[in-house]
Amino acid sequence: ADVIGRMDSQGNITKVAELMSANTDFFDDLTYEQANGVVSHRTTVRSGLPEVAWRQLYKGVQPSKSTVTTVDEPIGMLEGRSVIDSKLLALNGNDAAWRLSEDSAFLQSMRKKVAENLFGINTPEAEGFTGFPQRFAALDAENAKNIISAGGSGNTNTSIWLVVWSPQTVTAVYPKGSTAGLQARDLGEDTIYDDAGRPFQANSTLFQWDMGLSVRDWRYVVRIANIDTGALTETAATGANLLSLMARACRRIEDLTAGRAAFYMNRDTAEMLDLQHVNQIKNSTLTFEDAGGRQVTKFRGIPVRIVDAISNAEPAVK
Fold first, then answer.
1. CB 175 within 8 A of CB 75
2. Beta bridge partners of 264
3. Most-buried pick from 45, 222, 239, 241 (CB within 10 A)?
4. Bridging pattern class, strands 183-193 and 199-215
5. What sign does the dihedral 66-67-72-78 (CA atoms) show?
6. Spatial separation of the C-alpha atoms in residues 113 and 128, rounded to whole Å
7. What residues form DSSP beta bridges with 68?
8. Segment 248-267, tens digit of pLDDT
9. 251 three-class SS
10. pLDDT tens by residue, 13-26
């Protein structure tokens, strides 16, 4: 049944419909930096600028220096292992294509897990890394300037994120001496035991993704929080005006040219953004462009990415 389910009437491998997979276009935006540790990355975050002064002839100025805070960013080690019965591979007669169709589910699952860690509101697992929501979580925090409240309350809210990726602003990190991104390793054929302890031959693939998040400068992240999903309307007559909020977010960023900028929202919010764009077409700065064979929505030239991990049930940020 597994073989037939992935083959058409001519016996060819068909594309698996990943109905449960998450859209993870934002991986195109990530920048990576090698960490200075194996399980964590120690970095300095600038917390204050040096003092400067106007100078007079024959008079000096007081020496000064910037102030920095040392931060240790944890690195999570994500793993998955695919096990396929060797007999099933032999029956299929197309080992490489069959394994690709089977392993694609693991690739989707790992990308989904990383997205949830980055943008999900749930507390990250102890073995994971600290995502964005945990860093931009209070309207009275030091970085509250970069949290824009859309006025929602209760637990039916969502967020839009604007992030400028670069090694100097916000970047993903990977362990010292390793390789960035998702890695797959063919472990070959081995003897595996079923639940009853009976042996059989199987081929295994090991998937590994070691990653952390370093926010060196919070001024390059903006969270548009408290968007009441139930109050959104196509005309923006009531509820949040997404285009206006995104315009405000652009102005909160210190320098949009400092790295690779992108907006992130879930597909429900993206749909409402499109509808509000249609109703405000004369004054809208939303555009649709083709990039690498895919249509990309842009706001003021900044790509808009869909991330399913961004919830519609966020509690209000206070």
1. yes
2. 161, 305
3. 222
4. antiparallel
5. negative
6. 10
7. 46
8. 999 999 999 999 999 999 99
9. helix
10. 555 544 444 556 77
Q: What are the backbone dihedrals phi and psi of residue 306, each rounded to the nearest 5 degrees, phi first? A: -95, 130
What tens digit of pLDDT does each residue of 87-98 get?
888 887 766 777
Which tokens sit at 170?
Answer: 């916000």
Cα–chain center distance at 16: 24
pLDDT number for residue 19: 43
In angstroms, what is the C-alpha Rg of the chain?
A: 24
CA 250 to CA 293: how far, in whole Å? 27
Q: Read out DSSP for the chain?
A: -HHHHTB-TTSPBPPP--TTPPPBGGGGT--EEE-SSSSEEEEEEEEEPPP-----TT--------EEEEEEEEEEEEEEEEEEEHHHHHHHT-HHHHHHHHHHHHHHHHHHHHHHHHH-SSPPPTTS---STTTS--TTSTTGGGEEE-S--TT-EEEEEEEEEBTTTEEEEE-TTS-SS-EEEEEEEEEEE-TTS-EEEEEEEEEEEEEEEEES-GGGEEEEEEEETTT--SS-SSS--HHHHHHHHHHHSS-GGGSEEEEEE-HHHHHHHHHHHHHTTTT--EEEEEETTEEEEEETTEEEEEBTTS-S-BPPP-
φ/ψ (deg, to 5) at 259: -175, -155
The strand pair at 221-228 and 157-165 is best described as antiparallel
**Length of the chain as a residue count:** 318
Check: CB of residue 254 under 8 Å from CB of residue 220.
yes
Q: At residue 156, what is the residue type?
A: T
DSSP state of 76: E
Mean pLDDT in order along the chain per 10 residues (318 residues): 60 52 70 90 76 81 76 91 88 74 82 92 82 95 95 96 96 90 87 93 90 94 97 92 96 96 96 88 65 72 93 96
**Token pair listed for 148:** 């824009």
Spatial distance between the Cα atoms of 109 and 87, rounded to a whole number of angstroms: 25
Q: Look up residue 273 and give its amino acid.
A: L
